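USER: I would love a firmer grasp of how sequence relates to backbone shape in proteins. This is the protein in question:
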Amino acid sequence: MFEDNVLLAFGLTLFAGLSTGIGSAIAFLAKRTNTRFLAVALGFSAGVMIYVSFVEIFQKARIALTESLGNGLGTWATVAAFFAGILFIGLIDKLVPKADNPHEMHKIEELSDVPKIDKIKKLYRTGIFVALAIAIHNFPEGLATFAAALSDPRLGIAIAVAIAIHNIPEGISVSIPIFYATGNKKKAFLYSFLSGVSEPVGALIGYLILRPFFNDFVFGVLFAAVGGIMVFISLDELLPAAQEYGEHHLSIYGLVAGMAVMALSLLMFI
């Protein structure tokens, strides 16, 4: 069953990861930052990921693990794997220096604020470290998208779109300091684009490592951990990022809309 969806899973992961390039392109083509749209979009992405994690992914993981371990032990294993996913992405987040945090939002208008010469080296360093930080964060996100698509293409598409929306402002966050420091749009776009490559790389490495052992138990543990990863990303990254744009209520409206759309899409396939 899983082997049939491998190419689709890689394709969706590649799409989600490389959407950082979309953010960079928007930074250079648009004249102003549409903060209302980004707040709604990031909230929507969080809503999709939170709803699908608790309603669909957690349940599928529990079913797989209870079939392998029995009802009691399987349920405990599901909960443990879920929180292990949260711990895993939390530790990755902790390893990224706060000064180079990739979730500090930037606006397109900043491009017109040309920095002084003495700030150029610092800005270039910031851009490089933000790109590296995003690459580190995107590694488990790639594995999450891939695992979801491998199990169920419906879920994979929804999660890939949610991750792609999440990656657009991150692309802006990379390209703006790099452009500030070098004045080179091509270089800024390239670094932004490459920061998303770690998502398909994460999927590939995860698949190659787990493929020989793939069974219901491994799938259940991986899927429950993916649910934890996505809940953490939503609460720690997406919603705070949406609210940094100064549109608190719009981010919550987007959250509810994302949950509603995900719920309706799942109901349509019952």
Summary: Residues 118 and 176 are 17 Å apart (CA to CA). The chain is about 80% helix and 0% strand.
